[in-house]
TrEMBL record:
<dbReference type="InterPro" id="IPR043170">
    <property type="entry name" value="PTPA_C_lid"/>
</dbReference>
<dbReference type="GO" id="GO:0005634">
    <property type="term" value="C:nucleus"/>
</dbReference>
<keyword id="KW-0963">Cytoplasm</keyword>
<dbReference type="GO" id="GO:0005737">
    <property type="term" value="C:cytoplasm"/>
</dbReference>
<dbReference type="InterPro" id="IPR037218">
    <property type="entry name" value="PTPA_sf"/>
</dbReference>
<keyword id="KW-0697">Rotamase</keyword>
<dbReference type="GO" id="GO:0008160">
    <property type="term" value="F:protein tyrosine phosphatase activator activity"/>
</dbReference>
<dbReference type="GO" id="GO:0003755">
    <property type="term" value="F:peptidyl-prolyl cis-trans isomerase activity"/>
</dbReference>
<dbReference type="InterPro" id="IPR004327">
    <property type="entry name" value="Phstyr_phstse_ac"/>
</dbReference>
<dbReference type="GO" id="GO:0000159">
    <property type="term" value="C:protein phosphatase type 2A complex"/>
</dbReference>
<keyword id="KW-0413">Isomerase</keyword>
<protein>
    <recommendedName>
        <fullName>Serine/threonine-protein phosphatase 2A activator</fullName>
        <ecNumber>5.2.1.8</ecNumber>
    </recommendedName>
</protein>
<dbReference type="Pfam" id="PF03095">
    <property type="entry name" value="PTPA"/>
</dbReference>
<comment type="function">
    <text>PPIases accelerate the folding of proteins. It catalyzes the cis-trans isomerization of proline imidic peptide bonds in oligopeptides.</text>
</comment>
<comment type="similarity">
    <text>Belongs to the PTPA-type PPIase family.</text>
</comment>
<dbReference type="GO" id="GO:0007052">
    <property type="term" value="P:mitotic spindle organization"/>
</dbReference>
């Protein structure tokens, strides 16, 4: 993906994406599209870029990476500016709708501030993916479909040449990791419901991609063996260095029953267990995640009504 010639923003006609995958009948067209292959290629490329690398490890940090981090920090500040309201419902705090309205009003502006001027023609198209990355304002929920929108936003930045191949590690360990922190802040501040009644693939109620890239970080790790991710001390000591473990730490922090859940994870959720058992073996990870990548991109586009252009 990163080796392709970037889109010329000065001559390309950008269009605001529309919901195009609304039912199972649309999925076949989606799977045959170049956009589908771009997303698979992007996820794979980023997976390779962080293989065996800690989240805290030094990496190339371009000026655009710094600007995108600043943009995410601005959005995070909006959460602080708009506190939850008192309401009888325990979940789905309606103050999230005020946050979402502010993003709709100011999202394109802060994106233009983050991107060099030569890429501004693309903002009208890619801003939609960023807007859809933080949850649904009607249901006040968040799920892996929203996460996928952020993945598409990042992929678009590569497609137009704003992000380059040398930015790949920072895209995962800095930009995506900062996005993950922001989403956790949204989930806890506004008590957002998971966009799915039983979580997704028995991994996490909200996220999926950090388990893929996080497992790549842990490949061939000499100090953390697969069974150790169920150990709370291991999780706490290493969460800042490995995205996979940061996900476990977050779930532990928001669920008082999750300690028992983790201790019994092998019997309750063998799918999660098998994922962690696979990560030291590169060839097994590739096979396992290839199947999962196909599942996530296909299933979400039905559930969330994926935004895309006709490509």
């Amino acid at each position: 993906m990163c080796s392709e010639m970037p889109i010329d923003c000065g001559h390309h006609k950008f269009e605001e994406p529309k919901r195009a995958v609304l039912c199972p009948a649309d999925v076949k067209k989606w799977e045959q599209s170049s956009a589908y292959q771009d997303i698979l290629g992007f996820i794979t490329s980023m997976n390779v870029a962080v293989k065996g690398k800690k989240t805290s490890a030094p990496c190339i940090t371009s000026s655009l990476t710094t600007s995108l981090l600043k943009m995410l920090d601005t959005i995070s500040q909006w959460v602080g500016d708009i506190p939850p309201i008192d309401q009888p419902q325990r979940y789905g705090n309606k103050a999230f709708r005020d946050f979402y309205s502010r993003f709709k009003e100011q999202g394109e502006r802060i994106m233009r501030e983050a991107l060099p001027e030569e890429f501004h023609p693309a903002v009208a198209e890619i801003a939609v993916y960023l807007q859809e990355s933080f949850g649904n304002s009607t249901r006040i929920d968040y799920g892996t479909g929203h996460e996928l929108s952020f993945i598409m936003f990042l992929c678009c930045l590569f497609k137009i040449g704003a992000l380059k191949q040398e930015d790949s590690a920072a895209v995962v360990t800095q930009i995506f990791n900062r996005y993950l922190s922001l989403c956790r802040k949204l989930q806890t501040t506004y008590k957002m419901e998971p966009a799915g009644s039983q979580g997704v693939w028995s991994l996490d109620d909200y996220q999926f991609i950090p388990f893929i890239w996080g497992s790549s970080q842990l490949q061939m790790n000499p100090k953390i063996s697969p069974e150790m991710f169920c150990n709370e001390k291991t999780v706490n000591d290493n969460a800042d260095d490995y995205m996979f473990l940061s996900c476990i730490k977050f779930i532990l922090s928001v669920s008082c029953i999750f300690k028992d859940y983790v201790l019994n994870l092998e019997t309750r959720h063998p799918h999660t267990r098998s994922l962690t058992q696979a990560f030291p073996k590169n060839e097994l990870v590739c096979q396992h995640l290839k199947r999962e990548r196909g599942d996530i991109i296909t299933i979400q586009c039905i559930n969330e009504g994926l935004y895309r252009n006709n490509q």
